Amino acid sequence: MIIAVVNQKGGAGKTTLALNLAAASAAQGKRVLLIDADPQQTAQDWAAIRTEPPPFQVIGLTKPVLHRDLPAMAADYDMTIIDGAPRSYEATRSAIGAADVVLIPVQPSGADFWASRETVNLVRAAGEAKGGQRAAFIVSRKIGRSVLSREINEALAEFGLPILAAGTTQRVIYAEAMTAGETVIEQQPDGLAAAEIRAILTELEGMKE
């Protein structure tokens, strides 16, 4: 299964989601590959500051060749997760073209909503060329049960893509774990953030069926 975490807007929480989803999948005993397709190399920097190797393989591949090269690379893994590049049409299109499931993280803000339109257009174009592909929004960094969180769900509905019931909440543990070169699955495996990530993973795996 190949999951692409993409959004043309930066700061949507792609890398945090990708790393933690990879860790949650690895914790289930799966062989996991994470592709860092972002030229900023945040996922690779995260792996470099760890005191021990991550529980999954991290490879940088920023050129728009994922649709061509990734199927062969992913063959040896149970789960492959792409941390997509922001503001890169070709790289995002390539990541989408390689994926079985496309996950579009959106923060509850007008700027994120408006920026999602271009990503959705790329997903629709790729979906027409690749039968059976699934795509969904996920609301990331929600602030409790705020009105803004409810409004972003209503706004995203106009795009006609499903919105995951699970999502992430604004929690300090996500930033703390990232800064330490860890994941919330490793730092607080029984915590609320880890439960959020596992719920997202469960929904994504169900989309492939």
Topology:
Elements: E1 2-5, H1 14-27, E2 32-36, H2 42-48, E3 57-60, H3 66-74, E4 79-83, H4 89-98, E5 101-106, H5 110-129, E6 134-139, H6 147-156, H7 172-179, H8 184-187, H9 192-208
Parallel strand pairs: 1-4, 1-5, 2-3, 2-4, 5-6
Radius of gyration: 16 Å
Count of individual domains = 1
Strand-pairing-aware structural class: alpha/beta
The backbone outline, from C-alpha atoms, is globular
Number of helices: 9
CATH class: Alpha Beta
The CATH topology turns out to be Rossmann fold
Order of helices and strands: EHEHEHEHEHEHHHH
Largest sheet: 6 strands, parallel
Count of extended strands? 6
Instruction: Please state the average pLDDT score.
Output: 90
Helix content: 40-55%
| Strand adjacency order, main sheet | 3-2-4-1-5-6
Uncertain stretches = none
Q: CATH superfamily assignment?
A: P-loop containing nucleotide triphosphate hydrolases
| Proportion in β-strands | 5-15%
Second rung of CATH, namely the architecture: 3-Layer(aba) Sandwich
Task: Give the termini separation.
Answer: 10 Å
